[in-house]
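Handoff note, outgoing to incoming analyst
You'll be picking up this chain. Sequence as last confirmed:
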Amino acid sequence: MRIVVKVGTSTLTHPTGHLDIRHVETLCKVLSDVKNAGHELVLVSSGAIGMGVGKLNLRERPSDMATKQAAAAVGQCELMYIYDQLFGTYNHTIAQILLTGEDLRDPVRHRNFSNTVGRLLELRTLPVINENDTVSTVEIGVGDNDTLGALVAVSVGADMLIILSDIEGLYTADPRREQTARLIPEVREITPQMRESAGGGGTALSTGGMATKLTAADICMKAGTDMYILNGAKPRLIYDILDGKSVGTRFVGKEKTT
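Most recent structure output, in case you need it:
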């Protein structure tokens, strides 16, 4: 099975921007085990700007583009160093791919990207993909890494996209504001009501939110790819998905017609 896992800044770092060691170590251990089981894995990772904020001791996520790009340049080095160390512990080789929106829009560059990922998977590596925040200038290029994860999943012909977030899944309302909010275990159609209740952005260090996840789900579902939202603090839930259990929220890909 070919799986794309997207992990957000809120899963990788503390609110300070510094690495959440416990979460990242567990995540890399679980993903290494998934690869050991014979699955092909692509990791779409946020966190470069957030980690750069921590590394540069900035008080908050920068608002100006130049400082965002500077933080991304610093943070990306740190992020890949950590992944290389942790995945290397389990004898897995990683490969870094940084994308801009144009890499996915231009047919030739898009094909080159897909071919590269395919070959890396054949070589049993673990591609780690992030938006090229150091040179992109449209928040920051693709729009957010939830959308990037969906575009990557469709581009590489993944069987599923798993988004690890700071929430258990899609709810009937914001569970942080309404105690009566209920988790929706399965979605076969994204309704206007879902988009309305999705709300705005994510944390102070991230750009995502439930609205961007619904956009990602829409991309995946139309392409016939399943998408899941799971709590990133519990990466072992990925095992449950692979065992066919109902966890988080599953967005069911539409059947492909021939």
